[in-house]
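dumping this here before i forget
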Amino acid sequence: MHSINSSDKVIDRMDRLADMTHFPALVNAGATANILITLLITWRLVPLFHQIYAPVVWTALVLCINLMPVIFLRAVSYNKSPTPALRNMSFFNDQHRFSDWVYLAASANMAFWILVSWSIFTISYTPTTLAALLAVAFIVTFAPVLLRPFLR
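structure:
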């Protein structure tokens, strides 16, 4: 049986998390920027909201904002061109073409970063803590690109 190289898979045929290591670097950069910007906004929100439900509401709002373009683009059947291979995908043009499980994984990842960062910022609200968390989030989120030379 011949297995297909992950970089040759079309994006709606991803079947494992490791396939994400074949995204173009710009796609990973966009996802990383989304996480980092969300963490910066979270850092600013923590001192303003002390209610126990605030991080959950913020998480739900961020997930809705992140999924709205996908829902909209799927609803209008935007971009009816052939679905590209992972290595050829575009961050903006193809973000709505993944299998549903990919959005679940991305949403879980975003929720993790928001809830962990909110908890950490509640304990230590300092610029140093923010910088450290942003550095860790960058390394972890951009790891598929950073590790490519070692995975070949």
